[in-house]
Each structure stands twice: as C-alpha cells, then as structure tokens.
Amino acid sequence: MPIMTYSKAINQALAEEMTRDENVILYGQDVAAWGGIFKVTDGLYQQFGEDRVFDSPISENVMVGAGVGAAIMGLRPVVELQFADFLLTAGDEVFFKAGMWRFMHGGAFKVPLVIRAPSGGSGFGPEHSACPEAFVMHAPGLLCAVPSTPADAKGLLKEAIRLDNPVVYCEHKLLYAMRGEVPEGDYTVPFGKAVVRREGEAVTIVAWQDMLRRSLAAAERLSKEGIEVEIVDPRTLNPFDRETIIESVKKTGACIVVEEAYRTLGVGAEIGAMLLEQALPYLDKPFKRLAIPDVPLPTSQHLVNAIVPSEDDIYKAVKDLVS
Amino acid sequence: MDHTQMLDIFTTAVLVRRFETRIVQMAMAGELPGSLHAGAGQEIGQIAAISALSRDDYILYGHRGLAYMIARGTSLTSILADIAGKEGATSRGKGGVMHVVDVPNGILGESGTLGGGFVMSVGVGMALKRRKKNQAVVYFFGDGTSNRGTFHESLNWAAVQKLPCIYFCENNGYAVSVPTSRSTAVADISARAAGYGVPGVLVDGNDPAAVHEVMHTAVARARAGHGPTLIEAKVTRLQGHYVADQQTYRPDAELVQKTKDPLPKLQQTLMDAGVLTDAQVAHIEADAQRHIDEAVAAVRAAPLLATEVALQDLYA
User: Fold this and answer.
1) Domain boundary assignment for chain A
2) Angle, to 10 degrees, between the axis of helix B43-50 and the axis of helix B208-223?
3) pLDDT by residue (tens digit) across A37-90?
4) How far is A166 from chain B (nearest CA, A)?
5) Check: complex ipTM more than 0.85
6) What architecture does CATH give domain A195-322?
7) I need a labelling partner for B229 at 20 to 30 A (CA). Which of A58, A280, B145, B316 fits?
C-alpha cells in the first residue's frame, strides 16, 4: 500500500473525485495556481483547469453561501476556508444557509457541499488556531468529519464529496505532514463509524487528530508500566458513533475525552452527558475531560503548550485515574 | 411591451393585492399568524420584472409580499398552506410565508436572514454558467438589505466571474421603520453598482413597461455572458412592515395609502389607452375572488401538518 502524507491523501481524494464526477468543483482563497496556503490543492488547477479549480476573493460569506447555491443546483462544491476559525466568519452561511436551507424549504433541495476547514495547529493566534468542531456538532444539519490518519483523510473526504448533505471536513494543520499507508483507488470511509485505535482494559480514551496522536504516544508509555488503555477515534462527530464508546466503557469502566478545544460545552461535555444518560452503571470512575481552559489560544508557542493537553497531561490523567 | 402583457401584469397584481388583503384579514381575525410582510404597492414592479424572464430562469425572492410566487405560477392554495402550517405547505411547516419554494416554477426559496439570497444567487449563477443553457437568476431585495455585507461580497464575485445574475432592488424608502436617508450613505442604491463595475439602472417601479424593458436588457446581458446588472426600482410601501405595524414612525402613512397606490393608476392608464373596460375589471376582480375563495376553502379543509414533520427534512 502506498505511503503518503495526510496532505497528499486529501489532494488525491480531491483529484479522484474530480475525475469521477465533473460536478465537483473546488474553490477558495489561493487554492488555484498557488495550490493553497498549505499547498493541499497543489497541481489540481493545472490538472482540471480554471473552470473546476479557482480562487475566490477574501469573502468568506459568499464563498460558503455560493457553495450552498451551487449545491442546490446540482454541483458538488468543495470550498476551502483558509482556517477553520473562519467557519464563524461565515456563520450565517455555514449554520443557516448550509445547515438549514434544505430543512426550511421542506426537503426540496439537497446540499452536497463540503467545507474544508484547516483546524488546530497552535501558534497561529486566537483567530487562526481553533478546532471549532463543537460549534458544528451543536448545529443541526451539518455533518462533521475529523480525519486522524492519511487513510481516513482520503476515505472520509471521498465519502463527504459523495454525500448529499453539507459536511464540515476538519483537516488538522499539524497532521498535514503525517505519513501513513493510504489505500489506492476507490477507498471511502463511512460516516458514523468510530474505530478503536488501540485496545486495552484500564480506561477508554476518546480522542481525534492531534490529540489522538498524543494519546497514542501516552498509551505507549503507560503500556510499559503495564497500563493498557483503549483509544477510540470517533472519525466523524455528526453522525456520532455513541455505541462504540459505550461498548468500550462497558469494558473499561472509565472514560477520558482529550480535546483540542475549549472545555465548556465541548465535544467532551456531550460525551460525558451521553455516558451519564446511557452508561452510568458501567462507569466505575469519574468521567474526565482534558481540554483547553476557556481562554482563546495565544500565539506564543510556550503559552500554547501550557494550555493544550500534552502527552504528559494525558499520561498523568490516566495514572491519576487508575491509581 | 404590448397591451396583452400589460393586462397580464395588471390581472396578476389584482389577484396578489386581493389575496394579501384576505390574508391580512384572516390574520387580524386570528385565523392565520401575522407573519406576512405585505407587498402592497410593490407588486407591479415585481410582476413586471418577472415578466421579462423565461420559464427556465430562476428567482430568489425578498420578503415583501407574494407577487413573486404568484407571478411564477405557484398555487394560492400551497402558499396559504405554508402560512397556515397545513398539509400542502411547500416547506412542510418549516418556513411559513418566508420560505415558499416551487422548484418547477423556478422559485429557489428565500433566506430568512436578509441578504442571504445574494450569496445563494452567486452559487446558482455559477451552476447556470456551467450548464450553458442561457439561464439567468434574479434576486429581489430591498434598499435596507443592500447594507448587508453579503451584497458587497456577492456583487463583487458575481461581477468577477461574469455570472448570469440580476440584482433587483425594490427601494421603498424604508428599512422596517428607518428611512433610507438615515441608514444608507447613497440616495440611489443603483449608484453602488459602480463599485463593482456593473451597470446600475434606476427605474420607476410603478411603470411596468419601463421595468420590463430594463429587466429585458439585464437578462440579455446575463445570457450573453457579460455578467450581472443592478437594477433599482423606486417603489412605494403602502402598508406597515408586518401585519400589525401601526407605522407610528411614518407620519404620512395614511396619505401615502390614499394617494400613492400604483394599482388604481395602472388601471386608469390601461382604461385611458382603451385596453381595459369596466366590465373587464369586474371580471378580473371576480375571477381573483373565486381563486382566493377556493384556496381559502381548500386550506381550511386541510389538516394541520402532523407533529412528526418537525423532525423530518433535515438530512437528505
């Protein structure tokens, strides 16, 4: 199986879907000749031409809103927002137009729109660093993918483009350079199916993207001390695979959510509430969240490092819980 | 514009005016919610603009009145069902009068937040341009809505891409209660076209022939691939912003209602030109009344939408 970066896997998914379906178009700031600020769309303009791959003005509202308008007319637009934070810049268009146009018109339309949202990657400052998926998960009508490996980056994006509902596809900036095996050809990953990345009995960790990577590293250390944690990667947050988490908690009796986002009402809060409602008898230990304290992300890296959950934080949290 | 087209516009305007009047009466009586933003006074411009479109063109409409849908052929019964939340509602109780949708008649719906139609129209235009079937899309909006950022982002990008989009502004001088002069830095919205390198055209919205003419030119420009046009029709809002609006902010409201109604004026113009008789007027009014009565009866007899519908239609 070919080895490639997460970034290249996204690029390949776009190229394959654009080849397969001429209704797929791609636009965003700097995505055409320059290949995007993170170079994810490199070469696609040259391959597919300016009719299919084009730059947009710095106008997030119309970028997303036009995506909805094009989608209801049968195109399958992929819109690159330069930073995931800009989902809120285009809040009306993301949450009302994309999320609600079908609903508020009684199901008369399909909205096959994909919004690519480069997220996380601390150090870009308060408005360019967020993992805003909790906002998306909270809003009705928007699907949300959070790929954590190059293979999932490809499979979830190909699936997102084929779905008839709007998808916010969060691609983590710190994972762009991650390398891994990526299946060739028509490889898709279904939405709503979590995957157990590591099996264990001590505690269930739910994490995705860079927090998954840190959790896996912490798990290696813990394993050397005889503590085996189970790690669940949800892959998509809407639809959300509650069953896989509950099944894991039945086995471990404990759950920690590690999240690169504000603590209050984050995805972890929803998972905690879900466990209270549906799995309380199986929890032997208090539910725990590791997240960013409720402040915006600073720019200076050492300040970022002080507040984003680290491998060390995860290691200690597990040790505290199991001891 | 020939006399037949002129008569068609008048006939539709009479139907729209009477239908809206009936809806307001039913709302005042408590039978319907008072959610309608009446379009009285603006119907002629709206209908005349739509008369310049082909059947396979599209519209995204504004919130003021029902002329847009009726002119495109949406049934009175389905519009009334939307307002009443009854079976037969086009948006199945989700959107009420704000989101009447009728894709076969080219009606792509409405954005509840003002100016959402701008951004939607750009995407529709992108799709139409790629279809290469010479179709166009019109977005109707008010003077107040031209102050949304979406106006500026959309006109700019539509112009850059030379999209087949037409922006039809109905300037009635008020954004809810605020006169245009207190909210808007230019007297004529059409002057804003210069900022986007597109034609800005000012027209008397009460003159159906003039509106049809400027729309015809704009549509031809769109089909030829030359890009958008911004049209501003000066119109009169005869009533309040919504059904129960007393218009205390508008000292001349009563005088405007008595003297500025363009519908009797159009009737007189057509009669003076010898293309409309008293007998025809009576026939047009009776016909409208019959259609309205049928729609009211049908919707009164229709069941309320089942409550489980609230959970449907979110995902495809």
Assistant:
1) 3-181, 195-322
2) 40
3) 999 999 999 999 999 999 999 999 999 999 999 999 999 999 999 999 999 999
4) 9
5) yes
6) 3-Layer(aba) Sandwich (3.40)
7) A58
